[in-house]
Design brief:
Strand content: 5-15%
Structural class: alpha+beta
Strand order of the largest sheet: 1-8-7
Oligomer: single chain
Number of strands: 8
Largest sheet: 3 strands, mixed
Shape: elongated
Radius of gyration: 40 Å
């Protein structure tokens, strides 16, 4: 026994250290009966935390499925939807910006303040069906439901001591415009207004020769809309750009739902696997020696462990 003492002692020390390390990592609760002849330990399996795959999936869809060791197609599906949604969002967002730049350039080339003010005070000829320009209240005035922002510069700014006015003021003071010191602010509201509201139709380059009106069914009533070929083209361009923006928003929605669904599925699978493991679990007894440095043989008893 003495001859094998060092080897046995080393083995026992290694066994004890390994058991202590394993217990600290997995948080196992154990009950040790202080007996020099025998030891009985009851150990439970480490706790299952469904929150871990949930957080992993919320951060990166598919990660929770990978943690649960789900079939590869689940992980690939959630990752694929994630990547596809991001690529789709970037594509539609960039395409919407390109189309927006195009319709703004089109508007800058084909809508002017000169046309708008001139057609207000010098009515264009009747439309192709013989209806006069003055039959429509929206075309008889520069004022209306909306306006444009104007910047006053030069001598006119010094004379009036103001630098910004509304386009409504031109109805009473058209001479301000003809002074050459008025500049229209081409912001987001400008590009929306000239395509959306009839009062600005006179600014299009083809308004004098090709303006027309049509009826539009808005559900509970019929609305009269005044257009020109340029205005119609402009409206179509804005519509296409807005469709791209809608698709980009839809891609973001899919992206968010992918995170949520991946998280829910990972928790459900984790709990399902835990239930299966609990049903398959059985009591596993284990015998081992307990190290005792005060014993010449280094053996202080027998350890009996039950894992469940």
């Amino acid at each position: 026994m003495k001859k094998g003492g060092p080897i046995l002692r080393s083995y026992l020390i290694f066994s004890i250290n390994f058991i202590l390390l394993f217990t600290s990592i997995n948080g196992q609760d154990s009950t040790l009966a202080k007996d020099t002849s025998s030891v009985v330990m009851l150990e439970k399996e480490h706790a299952n935390y469904p929150g871990k795959p949930l957080i992993m999936s919320l951060v990166l869809p598919g990660a929770g499925q990978f943690y649960n060791r789900s079939p590869l197609w689940k992980t690939a599906t959630f990752l694929g939807v994630e990547l596809g949604s991001i690529l789709a969002w970037r594509y539609y967002e960039n395409r919407a910006e390109e189309l927006r730049d195009e319709y703004q350039v089109f508007a800058d080339m084909n809508w002017t303040m000169d046309n708008w003010v001139y057609n207000r005070f010098n009515n264009p000829p009747p439309s192709s069906d013989g209806v006069a320009w003055t039959n429509f209240p929206a075309l008889r005035n520069l004022t209306g439901t909306h306006d444009l922002k104007l910047i006053i510069t030069g001598d006119l700014a010094n004379e009036l001591n103001i630098t910004r006015v509304s386009s409504d003021s031109l109805d009473m003071h058209p001479e301000w415009f003809y002074s050459g010191d008025i500049i229209v602010v081409r912001d987001r509201h400008f590009y929306e207004n000239i395509g959306k509201y009839d009062q600005f139709v006179g600014g299009w380059n083809d308004a004098r020769e090709e303006w027309y009106w049509e009826e539009k069914d808005v559900g509970d009533s019929i609305e009269v809309v005044i257009k020109t070929p340029f205005k119609k083209d402009y409206i179509d361009q804005r519509y296409n750009s807005n469709q791209m923006l809608s698709a980009a928003k839809y891609s973001i929605t899919v992206l968010m739902f992918n995170h949520v669904i991946s998280g829910i599925e990972s928790v459900w699978t984790n709990q399902k696997n835990a239930r299966v493991e609990n049903k398959e679990a059985s009591i596993k007894p284990k015998f081992d020696l307990v190290y005792n440095p005060n014993n010449p043989s280094a053996v202080g008893g027998i350890k009996f462990s039950v894992f469940f």
